Give the backbone structure.
Amino acid sequence: MDHKAMEIVKKSRMVSRPTTLEFIEHIFTDFIELHGDRHFADDKAMVGGIAMLENQPVTVIGVQKGHTIEENVKRSFGSPNPEGYRKQLRLMKQAEKFNRPVILFVNTSGAYCGIGAEERGQGEAIARNLIEMAGLKVPIISIFIGEGGSGGALALALADKVWMLDNGMYAVLSPEGFASILWRSPERSADAAELMKLTAPDLLKNGIIEEIIPEAKEGLAENLEYTTSILKEMLVSQLQQLQQLSTEQLLEQRYCRFRKYGEFTE
């Protein structure tokens, strides 16, 4: 079996892959990071705040990984706790109040799976975000810049438009987890990756994403400007289109976008 999908998975997980804060730095100006969920703590695995996209004020939020062991420990290796998702919700509701579009960056293997996270309501926090995003009265664009795993990624992806970089991935669980369940052999993760249809071309074909954002041939880390310049132009154009819709049209289109997934099994 061809193992091209697993190669993409490996690229999406590379420690050198640019983080959410690096994308924010290259695309937006005047970024002001906001902290805390107003309930428990400030989760360093989720970053967000207010920024300018040319002349448009926006709210930007994303999962933050690190480039070193120390950074990744601080950021929980990009696996948010409940307070991270509640910070995301707080910033999204603030964006709705002030009529700012929301732009989300996804790069996570999944939500943090510790005992404390479960005690503080990990499942409820993710479910609450999905409920609120379904009815958020401002445009939402979600961009997969790396790994996208399980409900931890879905909590940032109930958007009007979902885009993905060339070497991004999105799946209900990791290929290793899939292989362990299906074959009781995590060593068959490469076979699992092919079956899961988790790459950008597969997701585009199945209507899970709308656009694939190209990466430079020399690599994303080596030439981030190539990708971010394209992405910035796409964001400006897409937000102009979404902001022409009435609130009722925006919410109806969002509803229909996700309701169509039932067609795959009906």
Observations:
- The first helix runs from residue 4 to 12.
- The longest strand covers residues 140-148.
